[in-house]
Design brief:
Blueprint lengths: L3 E6 L8 H10 L3 E5 L10 H9 L5 E4 L9 H13 L3 E4 L9 H38 L17 H12 L4 H8 L3 H16 L1
Parallel strand pairs: 1-2, 1-3, 3-4
Helix pairs in contact: 3-4, 5-6, 6-7
Length: about 200
């Protein structure tokens, strides 16, 4: 029987990997590869490289969530295909898919693409926020004390399809929104809009 190799990587928003480690320890593993670096583009990941070089046919690579693999959807999918082609099994602890099925591989592809889209969107918003702050500073204006309010953002077709699939499979809207890294209000609004469109 092959080894179970677990991979943990902290995110830029949560530098404490304990939640991931607790879940992986509860499910069991033979060797843990823990990355203590952010997953932003351009950051080396020595533990990930060590894991890839050590696994062989019959082994299992276990992780907490698909965004732990990285932020480039193309690279993630290429790596998954290479591992599966070498006889390595892939297991996610928190997402409702099985990569041994074509449906599971589709879900993984959609979630990887959604993670990459969210990263790019977050970077774009951050750049816009910095530019706005500089404009306010130049004009001598202060930030308002209240958070801005507005309509939930519109999600793309791939995100909507994934959201509907997760909810249909029994995942709560709140958990599905957390998986896709979108707001709960956005998830509810997207589902309501889709339902209204299908009913008309």
């Amino acid at each position: 029987m092959g080894r179970i190799c677990a991979y943990v990587r902290v995110s830029s928003r949560d530098q404490n990997p304990q939640l991931q480690i607790d879940a992986i320890e509860a499910s069991g593993y033979d060797e843990l590869f823990a990355e203590k670096l952010s997953g932003k583009r351009g950051t080396s990941r020595p533990e990930w490289a060590r894991l890839l070089s050590s696994v062989a046919a019959g082994d299992t690579v276990k992780f907490w969530k698909s965004d732990r693999w990285g932020r480039s959807a193309a690279h993630v999918l290429t790596t998954v295909n290479e591992l599966r082609g070498g006889g390595v099994r892939i297991v996610s602890l928190t997402e409702n898919f099985d990569l041994e099925t074509k449906e599971g591989r589709f879900m993984f592809a959609v979630l990887a693409a959604a993670a990459e889209y969210e990263l790019e969107l977050r970077a774009e918003r951050q750049a816009e926020g910095i530019a706005a702050a500089k404009r306010r500073e130049a004009e001598g204006r202060m930030l308002p004390g209240k958070k801005p309010t507005g309509r939930p953002r519109v999600i793309g077709p791939a995100e909507l399809a994934t959201l509907q699939h997760l909810v249909a499979a029994g995942t709560s809207v709140t958990e599905a929104a957390r998986t896709l890294k979108i707001g709960r209000a956005t998830a509810y609004a997207a589902l309501a809009a889709a339902h209204a469109a299908n009913s008309s």
